[in-house]
Amino acid sequence: MPSLYDFNVRTIRGEAKPMSDYQGKVMLIVNTATKCGFAPQFKGLEKLHKTYKDQGLAVLGFPSNQFMKQEPGDDAQVAQACELNHGVTFPLFAKIDVNGPGAHPLYQYLTSQKRGFLGSKSIKWNFTKFLVDRNGTIVKRFKPTDTPEQIEAHLQKLLGLKTTV
User: Which GO terms describe its biological process (predicted)?
Assistant: First the structure.
C-alpha cells in the first residue's frame, strides 16, 4: 500500500515535487479556488503558514476548477491571483482534479484514507482540508466551512505546541 510520501506533484510553476520532501512535517492539504466564496480563507491559511512553518507546518494548496468553475485561469493566473489578492506565500501546486476518474492520485489517496460526511470519498467543495501528522498519517478531514482559525488548535497539538486557541 502506498504512503503519502510516494506521490509526486507539480508546483504551480511547473516543477516536479515529491511529497517525500514534506516527510517529518505536519501538513495541511487544501483544494483551493480563488473565485470561491471561501477564498477569504487564503488569509487564514497564510497566517497559519507564517506562524507555524518554523515549527514544522507545511500548508499546501491545490487549485481545482471542479466546483462551479471557480478556478478558471491557468496556473500562472492562479499564482498571480493568490499572491496579489490574498498574499499567499505557502506552496501552491498545479491545478488538478480532486474528484472523478481524472482525480490526481494524491487526492485519490487522501479521500480513500479519510472519508467525509456519511463515509463519502468525494470532495464536496473548495477548501476541503486534510490534516496530516509528521508520519504521513491523515488524521482529520475538515469541511470547507471549517476555517483555518478553527483548525489551529489541531495543528498546535500535532506540532507539539501548547494550544492557545
Answer: cellular response to oxidative stress
- Count other C-beta atoms under 10 Å from residue 66's C-beta: 21
Tell me the per-residue pLDDT of 16-45, one tens digit each, with 9 for 90 and over.
999 999 999 999 999 999 999 999 999 999
Q: Which residues have C-beta within 8 Å of that of residue 124, sequence separation ≥ 6?
A: 116, 117, 143, 144
36 among known catalytic residues = yes
Spot the catalytic one: 4, 33, 36, 81: 36
Distance of CA 82 to the CA centre of its chain: 14
The SS3 call for residue 76 is helix
| Cell numbers representing residue 78 in the block | 492562479
Phi-psi domain of 87 (left: phi exceeds 0; alpha: psi -120 through 50; beta: other)? left
Residue ranges of domains in the chain, CATH in brackets: 4-158 (3.40.30.10)
**What is the DSSP secondary-structure string of 94-158?**
---B-SSTTB-HHHHHHHHHS--GGG--S--STT-EEEE-TTS-EEEEE-TTS-HHHHHHHHHHH
